[in-house]
């Protein structure tokens, strides 16, 4: 994952409503949830939900798929794992340098 993509996804998740939507979809598992259930669980207006879902879809964190009359929303787990990995993969990578400079 590149820095720009990570920044866009983190910016999208920086909104409390979008973060709540995303966490709801992550909790739902691979089956996802119909838009109506997401709306009921979070108690937000349909237009507000649509706006925020669109932003999550544009950043690649969420997908939507139509099943008959329902629109199913799903968290994109590989994207979530890539973002988390981007944040933690280099954790303490420079610790050796910091320890050396402290000792000197």
From TrEMBL:
- SMART domains according to UniProt: HTH_ARSR
Highest taxon of the lineage = Bacteria
Gene3D superfamilies xref list? Winged helix-like DNA-binding domain superfamily/Winged helix DNA-binding domain
Enumerate the UniProt keywords alphabetically: DNA-binding, Oxidoreductase, Transcription, Transcription regulation
Any one GO MF term held by the record is:
DNA binding
Q: What is its EC number?
A: 1.20.4.1
Q: Cross-referenced SUPFAM superfamilies, in alphabetical order?
A: Winged helix' DNA-binding domain
One Pfam family, please name it: HTH_20
In this chain the HTH arsR-type domain maps to 1-95
NCBIfam families hit by this protein: HTH_metalloreg
What is the protein name given in its UniProt record?
DNA-binding transcriptional regulator, ArsR family
Q: Say which species the protein is native to.
A: Methylobacterium phyllosphaerae
């Amino acid at each position: 994952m590149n820095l720009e993509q990570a920044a866009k996804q983190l910016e999208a998740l920086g909104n409390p409503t979008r973060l709540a939507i995303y966490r709801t979809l992550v909790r739902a598992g691979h089956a996802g949830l119909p838009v109506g259930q997401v709306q009921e669980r979070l108690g937000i207006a349909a237009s507000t939900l649509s706006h925020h879902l669109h932003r999550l879809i544009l950043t690649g964190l969420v997908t939507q798929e139509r099943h008959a009359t329902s629109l199913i929303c799903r968290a994109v787990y590989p994207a979530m794992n890539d973002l988390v990995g981007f944040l933690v993969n280099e954790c303490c990578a420079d610790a050796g340098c910091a320890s050396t400079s402290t000792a000197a």
